[in-house]
Amino acid sequence: MKFNVKAIAATVALMAACGAALAQQQAKPPVFQLWPNGAPGSEKHHGEAEKLEDGAYPINIHDPSVTVFRPAAAHANGTAMVVVPGGGHRIIVWNSEGVQAAQYLNRIGVTAFVLKYRLARDPNSKSDAGLPYTIEGDGAGDARRAIRWVRAHAADYGIDPHRVGLMGFSAGGELVSMVADNPEPVPASNAKRDALDQQSARPDFQVLVYPGPLGVPAKAVNGAPPAFLVAGTKDKCCMPPAIGLYQQLQAAGVSAELHLYAETDHAFNMGRGERISVAHWPDRLGDWLLDSGWLVPHGGQAPQGVPAP
What is the value of pTM for the model shown? Predict the structure, then answer.
């Protein structure tokens, strides 16, 4: 019996490609829009496709969303983290400040929700009124909505609604500070409200990675959630806000931990660069989360000493 070697090879290659595509499709994390009928002020843009800048960075975001990354069931501890990538409010640094952060958090048992938020400095991204989105209103509002969404869906993911953190990089760190350390704006009397608005938007703990200056000095640090802050000593933009917020939190009696890395500039992501210490900074975050009790299930209760939302 003769075999057509080329045909067999082609069939095997096709089967492998199909199998890889199926595995990739099955592994693709789910995405949920935070306002299924359109975000406030962006309803006319509801359903408009996002775009990618340089093939990697999402822009033209009108439907804020969270992408869910779940840990292995054996590792899950009931803690959640909303991850807010940076990008100067112009793009979303999706992979290195979103997906990679979520993957690390999954390894230590935390369920991660990576946020795509409306970009105030994306020149082609405007509200229904034709006005640019705002950082304080739309960007921070999307982060608050994400926390509310996670709490409302806590039972779906085995999450403790009292163990929801907020983590942001650079511009995303600004949104963290605006949400965690500053007062929430009073909604307009005619603002549309729904069931999610009944949930608290205050995170139980906050993680700020080389945060930008907006939101600091903070205006509501008394009773703010515990904080982990990290920055590089050569980062002229974002080292001062990290130090300033840390000092404010300490003065207010809020538990806070600050790490500054020598000879390090901006955007070291989840450990990018040549310095060994910077490569291991996520481990310091894991240590802090463990020391603070967030990685140990507490049966619906926050760790001792953490103020209630």
Answer: 0.88
Sequence-distant contacts of 154-160: CB under 8 A, at least 24 apart: 154/80, 157/68, 157/70, 157/80, 157/111, 158/76, 158/78, 158/111, 159/78, 159/79, 159/80, 159/111, 160/78, 160/79, 160/80, 160/297, 160/298, 160/300
Is residue 292 a contact partner of residue 303, using CB atoms and an 8 Å limit?
Answer: yes
| Single-letter amino acid, residue 139 | G
Please give the Cα distance from 213 to 87 (Å, whole number).
Answer: 14
Give the list of residues 6+ apart from residue 154 with CB closer than 8 angstroms, or none.
80, 160, 161, 164
Looking at the chain, how many residues does it have? 309
Q: Give the helix/strand (H/E) hosting 249.
A: helix 239-251
pLDDT, average across residues 7-26: 44
Q: Is 26 among the domain residues?
A: no
Radius of gyration of the chain from its Cα atoms, rounded to whole angstroms:
21
Cβ atoms of 94 and 58 within 8 Å: the answer is: yes
**Does 20 fall in a domain?**
no
Would residue 302 count as lying in a domain? no
Task: Please tell me the distance from the alpha carbon of residue 193 to that of residue 233, in angstroms, as a whole number.
Answer: 43
> Phi and psi at residue 89, in whole multiples of 5°?
60, 20
CATH of the domain at 145: 3.40.50.1820
What is the predicted pLDDT for the residue at 124? Answer: 87
